Amino acid sequence: MGITINNMSMMGLSLAVGMVVDATTVVMENITRHRDGEGTPYRAAQDGGGEVARSTGRSRDYTCCLCPCCFHGRDHGTFL
């Protein structure tokens, strides 16, 4: 019993949903921190989103580069 296309699709979908939820949580917590301080909600959204944009983007880039490397082991031809 090997890994089928359905299993791979579900793994990719669960990874993508997890990444979106994680990034959203980080951004919303930072915006909330800025809203609790002085300033308008619009400015809080600009500052809070801008502060974590690079880190959430790097996290996405790292995951997109790491996942294909996971399949370069001994089972490389199994998935094709």
Rg estimate, integer Å:
18 Å
Major sheet: none
Number of helices: 2
Sequence stretches where pLDDT stays below 50 over 5 or more residues: none
What is the overall shape? elongated
Structure description:
With 80 residues, the protein is an all-alpha fold. The chain is 78% helix and 0% strand. It has 2 helices and no strands. The chain has helices at residues 5-36, 41-70. Helix 1 (5-36) runs antiparallel to helix 2 (41-70). The chain is elongated, with a radius of gyration of 18 Å.
How would you summarize this macromolecular structure in one to three sentences?
The protein has 80 residues and is mainly α. The chain has 2 helices and no strands.
Q: Layout of helices and strands, plus pairs?
A:
Layout: H1 5-36, H2 41-70
Helix pairs in contact: 1-2
Supply database-style keywords.
80 residues; mainly alpha
